[in-house]
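Title: Prediction job returns without error message
Component: structure pipeline
Severity: low
Priority: P3
Assignee: unassigned

Description:
Job completed but the reporter wants confirmation the result is attached to the right record. Sequence as submitted:
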Amino acid sequence: MSGQNLSRIGQNRLRPFERAPRPMVGYACDYAPGHETGQHRHPRAQLLFASAGVMRITTEAALFTVPPGTGLWVPADTRHGVRMDGLVRMRALFLRADAAASGPSLATVIAVSPLLRELILTVCGEPVVWDARGPIRLVAALVLHEIRRAGTRPLSLPACSDPRLLRVAAALIANPADPRDLEDHAAVAGASVRTLARLFRGETGMSFQQWRRQLRMTEALARIARGELPSRVAVAVGYASVPAFGAAFRETFGTTPATAAPRAGTASA
């Protein structure tokens, strides 16, 4: 993401959600493909969820891919930017500090169960200041319960800061199928193979091969979520055969590409 900030119009639109007296409020907005929010932060924690479309979210620590069926927990005051991959129907929650205690301490991709999905949509259908004595208070309590018990998903990629690593990362993000090894990248990055290998370990906690594999798998899931055929996705992320791609996908996500694909006729709210 660029260094631009959320527009003043966007800030004004979100301010009521950031100051609402309720423990949780829902925010609904549809975004055009390619829309970018710019880097910004909120005084309240968020659960960013899209009922349709894929969100690419950056923080200072990581790059996140968030397809339908998952959500990104963003703690309060975490600087982040969102880019919409295709048409995105964002249905997000803002949580007051007491309610946010139900979520992780770091930005984390969590699984959004069918129940949690419907609860999010219900909260998003309520006014910013909903009836504190009405049944919606029970829905909000159930949302917090579901957030506490939600599993996490391996859809983050550690960010890089060293300029030499950034050149390598940019090339791979632009083309996950890039077959070049670390030696080839070293020539472009302006560093020795040993230096790049050390930087990858030091900054990301991963080897170059592990980082690239994680990138390929997160990109694969995003493409599967958009409805692309597994055979095409395999080629796009650098696998020579569909069986090899399927095995790597299953090892990473515990399911097959076909199972992860969106169901035909699934309604989006």
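Comment from assignee: result matches the submitted record. The chain has a mean pLDDT of 91.
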